[in-house]
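Example record used in the benchmark description.
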Amino acid sequence: MPVAIITGASRGFGRALGADLARDGWSLVVDARRDSELLGARETFIALGARVEALSGDVTDPDHRARLIDAALGFGSLDLLVNNASTLGTSPLPTLDRYPLDELLHVFDVNVVAPLALIQLALPLLRQSRGAVVSLSSDAAVEAYEGWGGYGSSKAALDQLHRVLAIELGDVRLYSFDPGDMRTEMHQAAFPGEDISDRPDPSTVVPALRSLLASAAPSGRFRASDWASA
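Model output (structure tokens):
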């Protein structure tokens, strides 16, 4: 059975991806900060046939990251690391001239430092399996949108880490994956009080990522829309 670590798997895209992999017989190591939601996701994944290790915690905590890797070792391998956990930062979204700097540091800790730390820990296992890393990106990483400077700059930094790692590592595929707008709690926080029911459900985006993974394409930055029909 292939093994995946998915951070932020209790809801949204992480939960939808976990369910899809569970149907295909993957073993899953999943985490989230909310115990009750994580337990619900775990029960869903098990019902779909997966072996599951669910660990509540924060990806910025080094001990928690180490436990995720140890759980994958308990399954015997690691084929896929998905850095899905992210934070939007302050909501409503502030412009950069008044962005709280302590909050910006937290955004970069969650969205940039923690993913890199997990990649570093996972590399020995991923090299053995010739596996892949997927880190969730955003169009805010490449486009300038008012109010999105904090989140967007963190995702731009994560994209750049991937580009450099792809040059430095020849035996692990690294995908920055831009899923596009989705109907998620974080997207709602970006637009407080607005109706976002027209945004796609995260489950409709998962097939694009699965197509990318199945293609074994070289490392790079990819948009879900580029793989939607694959």
